[in-house]
Structures are given as structure tokens and as C-alpha cells.
């Protein structure tokens, strides 16, 4: 019998077969691999659920002539609600999940790589999350995210371009071939600097705020099955808000460089353009949908990851 497939409006398909029962991996696989599975499993739900916010964020950072906008001080200033309504009007509800396949291809293994790298690094240090100090948490988060960010930068480029509406790719492999043929390796890795400047500090700051917030709470709350999930999610929300705001400028530069690599060959040229065109506020374009998405996505991913790792005895 063939595997069931989920088909999106753009014609791309992904396998939606029943996931592996992670409890069965407790005795069969290496702890790092189990961490990868738990992370990938947790990333799947959050990626699908919050994809519309990521799409709106990308469109906000790259307003086009197709977006109905409002003029403020002589400049075109599309708003979050305006872009959301415009997408629904032109592309219907399914259009809010545009770029879902590259998002899943990037985020699901990306979350898995992050959690498995984090688990491996902690085991080398002989520590668990409850023992991490602020500096150790930042360092581990930065290193783990850097490892996964470098490995998945080609998919990050494709995801950004597809969501922007500027490029018309028909498939993931078609996009990879098109970029490599036209721009070479440089095209597949453009915006790597700003991507790491966004993701690595975000993960480092997030892990620091997350672990420190948990350490400040009574242990009884964390050990209680009834309250553990709520506590983990709340700690994730607090950590996500702080980390998202601190790293939004790098996200803006990353979007510009990946959409227009010829116009913005480096982060400095992108920064100058943003400052001259939009002023200081330009570095926080798309901050609201990004903050909502990253905060809820990270909080959900960590909550699911904590529950899965506890159930398979990984913690």
C-alpha cells in the first residue's frame, strides 16, 4: 500500500504517514538520535501551525507592488493586517501556507539537529539543562544553532525566496537546481552571516532565559504532571519574546540579502539600505508576526520536546 501524502495548493506533496512511536526508540537507538527524533517531532507541529505568521513577516520585510498599502509620510507602509488580508484575497486561505514544503524541509530537521546537537554538547560537558548557568546556556545555544544553521542554509534561502512571492519555483529540487545553476554555491549560502547572527544569538538568549526562568520556579511545579507542560510553555513564551526582539534586525538583513543577492552582497550594504529607506524602525519590520511565531513556535517545540524526552527516558 502506498504511503499517504498531503498535497498543498502549489502542487508539492509531503509524506504524512503516521509518525514513529518514539517510546519504541528507548532501547534501540543512541540518545543523540533519540534527541533528534524528539526535536523533529516537536518541530513538525509548530512549523505547520505558525507558517502563516512567517509568510506575513517575510512579506512585511519585502513589500511589493502586489501588496495593497497605505502611504505614511510619503512612504509605502504595508501593515501586518493589510498583508494578511491581501494574501487571503489574492491567494485564498491556502495561500497563507505558501512555502510550507521548504519550511518543513528546513525547520523539522533543523529543530532535530538543534536538539540533538544540544544534547550531545551537554553530555560532553557532563551537565543537564537544570545545571546550566547563564553563560553556559548562551554558549551551548549559540554553538548548537550554528551547527544546524550552517547545514541547512540552502533550504533557508529557498524558504525565504518562496515565501516572498518574488521567485516562482515549482519544487524544492527545482529551486535548488535553479539557484545553483544561476548563482552557484554563493547563491545557496547567501545571507549566511545574518542568518547565524539572527539564529545563533536567538537560540543562545532563548536557552538562557528559558533555563533561568525554570530555575527560578519551585521544583514542585516542574515535577508535577499536571503543571509541567504549562510551566514549560510559559517559560518558553517569556524567553521567546526577549530573544525575538533582540535578533530582529539580523532577520531583516537576512531577508534582503537572500532575496536580492546582487543588490546586497553583504550585510553592511543591506543595513545601509534599510537605514536610508526606513530609518531605525526599518530594522524591526516584521517584528510583531516574527515575535508571535518564534515565541509560540519555540515554546511549543520545547514543551513537546520536554514531554517526549521524559516519556522515553532521555532526560
From TrEMBL:
Identification of the protein by name: Mitochondrial glycine transporter
GO CC terms of this entry: mitochondrial inner membrane
UniProt-listed InterPro entries: Hem25/SLC25A38, MCP_dom_sf, MCP_transmembrane
Location (main, coarse): membrane
Species assigned in the record: Euphydryas editha (Edith's checkerspot)
Annotated signal sequence range: none
Pfam families per the UniProt record, alphabetical: Mito_carr
GO biological process, one term: glycine import into mitochondrion
Record-linked PANTHER family: MITOCHONDRIAL GLYCINE TRANSPORTER
Coiled coil: none
Bilayer disposition of the protein: Multi-pass membrane protein
Keywords, alphabetical: Membrane, Mitochondrion, Mitochondrion inner membrane, Repeat, Transmembrane, Transmembrane helix, Transport
Amino acid at each position: 500500500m502506498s504511503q499517504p501524502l498531503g498535497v498543498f495548493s502549489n502542487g508539492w506533496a509531503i509524506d504524512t504517514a503516521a509518525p514513529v512511536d518514539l517510546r519504541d526508540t528507548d532501547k534501540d537507538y543512541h540518545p543523540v538520535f533519540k534527541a533528534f527524533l524528539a526535536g523533529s517531532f516537536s518541530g513538525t507541529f509548530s512549523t505547520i501551525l505558525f507558517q502563516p505568521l512567517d509568510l506575513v513577516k517575510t512579506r512585511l520585510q519585502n513589500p511589493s507592488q502586489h501588496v495593497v498599502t497605505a502611504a505614511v509620510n510619503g512612504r509605502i507602509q504595508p501593515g501586518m493586517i493589510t498583508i494578511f488580508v491581501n494574501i487571503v484575497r489574492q491567494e485564498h486561505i491556502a495561500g497563507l501556507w505558501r512555502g510550507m514544503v521548504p519550511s518543513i524541509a528546513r525547520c523539522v530537521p533543523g529543530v532535530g539537529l538543534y536538539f540533538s546537537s544540544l544534547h550531545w554538547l551537554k553530555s560532553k560537558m557532563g551537565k543537564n539543562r537544570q545545571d546550566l548557568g547563564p553563560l553556559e546556556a548562551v554558549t551551548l545555544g549559540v554553538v548548537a544553532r550554528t551547527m544546524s544553521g550552517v547545514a541547512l542554509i540552502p533550504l533557508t534561502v529557498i524558504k525565504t525566496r518562496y515565501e516572498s512571492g518574488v521567485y516562482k519555483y515549482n519544487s524544492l529540487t527545482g529551486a535548488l537546481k535553479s539557484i545553483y545553476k544561476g548563482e552557484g554555491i554563493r547563491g545557496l549560502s547567501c545571507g549566511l552571516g545574518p542568518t547565524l547572527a539572527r539564529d545563533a544569538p536567538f537560540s543562545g538568549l532563548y536557552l538562557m532565559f528559558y533555563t533561568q526562568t525554570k530555575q527560578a520556579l519551585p521544583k514542585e511545579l516542574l515535577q508535577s504532571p499536571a503543571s509541567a507542560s504549562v510551566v514549560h510553555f510559559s517559560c518558553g513564551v517569556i524567553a521567546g519574546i526577549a530573544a525575538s526582539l533582540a535578533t530582529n534586525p539580523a532577520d531583516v538583513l537576512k531577508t534582503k540579502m537572500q532575496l536580492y543577492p546582487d543588490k546586497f552582497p553583504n550585510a553592511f550594504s543591506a543595513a545601509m539600505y534599510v537605514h536610508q529607506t526606513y530609518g531605525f524602525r526599518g530594522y524591526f519590520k516584521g517584528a510583531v508576526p516574527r515575535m508571535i511565531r518564534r515565541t509560540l513556535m519555540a515554546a511549543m517545540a520545547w514543551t513537546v520536546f520536554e514531554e517526549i524526552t521524559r516519556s522515553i527516558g532521555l532526560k
